[in-house]
Amino acid sequence: MLTVLIPEPKKLEVADLPKPQITQPDEVLVRVLAGGICGSDLHIYHGTNPLATYPRVIGHEFGGVVEEVGSAVSPERIGQRVAVDPVVACGQCYACKIGRHNVCSTLEVMGVHRDGGFGEYVVVPEKNLYTFSKEVDDTMLALVEPYSIGMQINARGQIGQGDKVLIMGSGPISICALQVAVSRGAQVMVTDVLPQRLERAKASGAARVVNVKEEDLEKAVMEFTDGEGMPVIIDTVCAVGTFEQAVRLSCPAGRIVVIGLNANPSAIAQSEITKKELTIVGSRLSRARFGEVIEALEAGKLKPELLRSHTYPAADIKRAIEQIENHPEEVCKVTLTF
Ligand SMILES: [Zn+2]
Ligand SMILES: [Zn+2]
After folding, report:
1. Distance from residue 88's CA to the centre of ligand 2 (Å)
2. How many angstroms separate the alpha carbon of residue 119 from the centre of ligand 2?
3. How far is the CA of 229 from the centre of ligand 1 (A)?
4. The domain 158-282: what is its CATH number?
5. Nearest ligand to the C-alpha of residue 99?
6. Which stretches make up the Enoyl reductase (ER) domain (predicted)?
7. Of the candidates 38, 59, 34, which has an alpha carbon nearest to the alpha carbon of residue 146?
8. Where do the CATH 3.40.50.720 domains begin and end in the chain?
9. Using one digit for the tens of pLDDT, what is the confidence trace for 216-275?
10. Among the bound ligands, the one closest to the CA of 112
């Protein structure tokens, strides 16, 4: 079967590998229909994802149709079109026991720590499957995962009706977080340096966009918040400096959500956190958000047509990656068809 394989850092092959087999009673075989390319897939390819192991079949944003089931799975599953949550957790550690399996101490993510969904077939546990109640196109199955990241960010930032929110950066994760925040009634300001990306943010419901190459962000934040500072900040740029800036731009009692895997320390004084009593939280993967995302998509609360910008056949993944890396201004979420 056709598979996107990273045998070692900096090498990407469209390989012909044997079809995987069900080995556990609770597993199902999914014929993959669509996948989404994520920044972290590119980091695995370039050898800059500290969590990945090689060789690796990449892809953690994917969905398809169930073709075979293990002995403990109802045969009614066969033929179901499913989005697959890529997180596999132990169920035993502290985080798992309090329901936060997305930060399980022995966490494995399909496409990162174990083989993922960029192949014609993949075997996954049944409990990772989510279905829509109505017919949706194949691409939608692959968009549930990135939206689940946006849901998790909103939950971690406790974003609700009337909240003023700053999202730093306007890549695909920002667009997901933005659309979810808007659906919750928040007023959102979004930054970037690329005008086309800011246009997409506007179309996705941003109340104010700031090109930080041309405008002073601090001034814009103060205007947007009547001089108070920002109540909620989501840093999707994940640079040393943007985290520091987020702490400065927060209002007293503000909340900051970080999602980066940047290992370089930011210089943040304790006094800045204490004086404003800031809440700084990490947000990683997602925790049982797939159902919420599907509900929101079915209710028409999100705009997936603005999230997805390009689609390529999986065999052309190299062209898709060139598009992402050479024309970032044109690209949001790029999906693959299998
Ligand atoms: Zn992703
Ligand atoms: Zn665990």
Report:
1. 9
2. 27
3. 30
4. 3.40.50.720
5. 2
6. 7-336
7. 38
8. 158-282
9. 999 999 999 999 999 999 999 999 999 999 999 999 999 999 999 888 999 999 999 999
10. 1
